[in-house]
Amino acid sequence: MSHEPPPTRAQQRRSLREELDAIRAQGRLRTRPVIDGPDGHVVRLHVDGKRVALINWASNDYLGAAQNLRVRNGAFKALRSYGAGAGAARLLSGGLRIHRRLEERCASWWGVEDVLVTSSGYQANIAALVSLCITSEDVLILDRLCHASLYDGARLSCGTLMRFRHNDVADLETQLERSSGAPRRIVVVEAIYSMDGDEAPLAAIHALCERHGALLVVDEAHALGVVGPGGRGLCADLGLTPDLRIATCSKSLGSQGGLIAGDRDLIELCVNRGRAFIFSTAPVPAAMGAAHAALTLLDDQPELPALLVARATALREALRAQGWAVPAGRSPIIPLIAGDEAAALALAARLRALGHHAPAIRPPTVPAGACRVRLNVTLAHTDSDLRKLTRALATIRAEQTAAETSA
Predict the structure, then answer these.
(1) Could you confirm whether 404 is annotated as catalytic?
(2) How many other β-carbons are positioned within 10 Å of the β-carbon of residue 115?
(3) Distance (Å, rounded) from C-alpha 205 to C-alpha 192?
(4) Has 147 been annotated as catalytic?
(5) 61, 198, 219, 341: which is the annotated catalytic residue?
(6) CA–CA distance, 329 with 309 (Å, rounded to integer)
(7) Quick one: pLDDT band at residue 47, thresholds 50, 70, 90?
(8) What pLDDT score was predicted for residue 39?
(9) Contact 202, 223 (CB under 8 A)
(10) H helices of 120-252, where?
(11) Given 99, 251, 292, 381, the catalytic residue
């Protein structure tokens, strides 16, 4: 047993500062940009002491719903009717009629028995996985590139965490065979992955779960409003019904809040075991009103997702013609892999100098060596925005080619 005195408060604070210094030295230090007056496709922020207007390629507001007048009016109407906040968790006095109305509408929209609204998509993922996996013998099998919230949910559950190689159905089957003795196995994937924009081979994964008797949870956060009939997501696009599908109101619906959809008994289980739901104040009413209005927007204009996909496809093709290694796909997420942290920061800085806001994505969000700039196409972008981005990236590509030649 060590007889050394415990570290002093000053020593502990110094060690914490050293951790921050290490993050800075690795090129992974994050800062909080302060954005003034976003209008859907342009952000105004302070860079190097100057206030600049940049075309925004970092938003997940895929349909431009957050600034849509109908959606904003939905938020205003809910604010007037219900006030600024819910006041409590939903199992106390925070469960307002507008929360339940959104649940009932989403259940009908997806064709499922029930939906549970949470305060965020992050909390929805945690609540769902904690609810399904309750003993150390239960197994959660996650795609290696699943979102941090899914991994946090898996780690907060009582179960054993296993992983399979990204979108590798054969490796998933190997993990299912290895865990065949578990009383409960839950396979967890994203419909569209947030950093690469690629789709899960969901039909094959669903069939594999059926064959091995495993439950399937699909996070549709980046698929809602993007693919499927009327923007209902990849599961609806393929005609598949997972045990639980999870989504968020904070992307295509231009609002905030999480959604867990499935059979009524599983939703009731989440109500009773999902600590992230039980112990959180209910979402603000304005967010629920905005989400209602965004669903109405999708119902009235079901062509919006196809327009978004067409716009993203055109940009992919233009960048590929310039020599950028752009992956195939139909999502509005287009990654430009730079390599290490310095290269990603340099690419983001060059884009910023040319009038575009696309921050560098670095570990732990993406693996080391796969740092990138991620371009998110939205319906708020104009044709002029797309032309300006294409020209800017052509300039950068030419600069890179010249540097490589001279080296």
Answers:
(1) no
(2) 23
(3) 14
(4) yes
(5) 219
(6) 9
(7) confident
(8) 63
(9) no
(10) 121-132, 148-156, 169-178, 202-212, 234-238
(11) 251
| pTM reported for the whole predicted model | 0.93
For strands 50-56 and 42-47, give the pairing: antiparallel
Choosing from 222, 292, 357, 381, which is the catalytic residue?
A: 222
In order of 63, 118, 122, 265, the CA distances from 115 in angstroms are 23, 10, 16, 11
Name the active-site residue from 194, 250, 252, 376.
194
300: Cβ–Cβ under 8 A, 6 or more apart, which residues?
Answer: none
Residue 317 bears catalytic tag: no
User: CA of 209: how far to CAs of 129, 144, 151, 314, 391, in Å?
Assistant: 17, 17, 20, 35, 46
- Verify cis geometry, omega within 30 degrees of 0, for the bond prior to 5: no
pLDDT at 37: 67
Q: What are phi and psi of 15, to 5 degrees?
A: -65, -35
Catalytic residue among 41, 99, 147, 206: 147
| Residues paired with 216 in a beta bridge | 187
60 is catalytic: yes
Report the distance separating Cα 361 and Cα 19, nearest Å: 20
The reply to whether 251 belongs to the active site is yes
Q: What is the Cα–Cα distance from 359 to 336, expressed in whole angstroms?
A: 11
Which entry of 60, 166, 340, 388 is annotated as an active-site residue? 60
208 falls in which pLDDT band (50, 70, 90)?
very high
219 is catalytic: yes
In which residue are the tokens 């150390």 written?
Answer: 136
Q: Is 190 a catalytic residue?
A: yes
Could you give the CA distance from residue 365 to residue 373 in angstroms, rounded to a whole number?
12
Q: Are 123 and 156 in contact (CB under 8 A)?
A: no
Asked whether 149 and 142 are in contact (CB, 8 A), the reply is no
Q: Return phi, psi of residue 261, to 5°.
A: -125, 140
CA quadruple 45, 386, 230, 276: dihedral positive or negative?
negative
Retrieve residue 343's tokens. Answer: 């290269």
Annotated catalytic residue: which of 61, 114, 190, 196? 190
